[in-house]
Amino acid sequence: IRPTYRAIMFGDPPSGIGPAPPAMLLERGTRGALPPGGHEAVGAVLQEAQSRVDGIAAAAEVIAKPEVRQAVGRLCLTAEQILEEILLKPGQAELARGFLNYYLEAADRIIRGYADLSGRHLVSAEVTQTLAQAEASLGGIQKAFDNQLSMLLQYRLLDLDGEISLLEKTVQMDGLAGPGASG
Prior knowledge:
Elements: H1 3-10, H2 40-60, H3 66-88, H4 97-119, H5 125-173
């Protein structure tokens, strides 16, 4: 787990690290470049999405409730995995349109709003109810993020299954399987 996420999720910042703003989730030095082929628009969308994830992580740092910080940390990890999948296969950006255009933006607004409202320490039935609704929504947001990641990974699995099947058929057709080989 990245140190920033560990601090968000468990409230124990690594030694020597103060309350500095969170590092980029997909740090520029470790991010791969988009493959050539007209993916500039995908790059711009990913950059905007990364900015939103960074904002969510920054908002989480000021949330006092550890269980809410943990939930937001999990959201950030899942969002980062989704962005990494899109970076690996920019053609899948269309599959993640709902995540990129709606869910991530809504999560950003909800979490920033929650962090702001909970940080004001206002005591009223309305505030308490709104904070409780925001907390309850985190589970649904996580489920949406998980489903999005699963869908992107499913396409990768289908690609791999196809490659394996093609290789097995080619080996059989070329007579290279040998006696006793299964497949």
